[in-house]
């Protein structure tokens, strides 16, 4: 069971409340596809991913970015039971999508960078970063749990 | 693999960091110590509390070394040879820690550059930091 301090809970929920998930989802996913191009292997049906501009303008990437943030919202609403909440999602990523779980961390890092860009050094200070990254690492771990 | 455009972008970005080397460097270190507490084990001999002289001085050294590397990307191995020996034979840091500091440097840059930390800039700096760390870890074994 993950232990969250009151400060961590406040930081995570506080940050989530200030995020525009329709904005950060597309930004984070397109950033991931640009910074870590091998992640494009999972999006061969998404059309033109041939350049950073193409990726950032790709409607399917944007839509999927929003889907991912919807998934993250479920984790926020079930912070004390992320593992169980994500069991089916984990099975899907393993058995249907065949995603290498090491890539989850890359997308998580891109979400973190987008939050840092938006909130700056005081809005996203070291303590908030610690709490946020702890939350994302629990999410990443839960997503990778049903791989056998 | 860094394109010429990326190399120029990297020099541009690090040049803007030199005047604020203490701020950027100490912030990246503080983020690393807070997010990944095990990294503090290498600094038991220093006062690494927020804003301490040691933290600011050490942060400055790191940013200056990175800026130096940025200006000499094609000859990183020779430029960084003394630092490489230092990290291998004296510091003996577990190699996974380079990634942790690199990540916190990226987050610090993102905080300070905002929208200017475009995906292309992010990719270039990430590649540069990986290359830099690889040279620092080269002599480990």
Automatic annotation (TrEMBL), chain A:
GO cellular component, one term: blood microparticle
Gene Ontology BP term (one): hydrogen peroxide catabolic process
Database matches in InterPro entries: Globin (IPR000971), Globin-like_sf (IPR009050), Globin/Proto (IPR012292), Hemoglobin_b (IPR002337), Hemoglobin_oxygen_transport (IPR050056)
Pfam families tied to this protein: Globin
Swiss-Prot/TrEMBL keywords: Heme, Iron, Metal-binding, Oxygen transport, Transport
Residues of the Globin domain: 3-148
Top-level division of the source organism's lineage: Eukaryota
CDD domains per the UniProt record, alphabetical: Hb-beta-like (cd08925)
Example of a GO MF term: haptoglobin binding
Family: Belongs to the globin family.
Subunit structure: Heterotetramer of two alpha chains and two beta chains.
Protein function: Involved in oxygen transport from gills to the various peripheral tissues.
Protein name, per record: Globin domain-containing protein
Source species taxonomy: Eukaryota, Metazoa, Chordata, Craniata, Vertebrata
Automatic annotation (TrEMBL), chain B:
Superkingdom field: Eukaryota
This protein's GO CC annotations: blood microparticle; haptoglobin-hemoglobin complex; hemoglobin complex
Keyword S-adenosyl-L-methionine attached: no
SUPFAM superfamilies hit by this protein: Globin-like
GO molecular function, one term: heme binding
Example of a GO biological process term: hydrogen peroxide catabolic process
Domain Globin per the UniProt entry, residue ranges: 1-141
Keyword Iron: yes
PROSITE patterns: GLOBIN
Alphabetized UniProt keyword annotations: Heme, Iron, Metal-binding, Oxygen transport, Transport
Family affiliation: Belongs to the globin family.
Protein name: Globin domain-containing protein
Organism: Phoxinus phoxinus (Eurasian minnow)
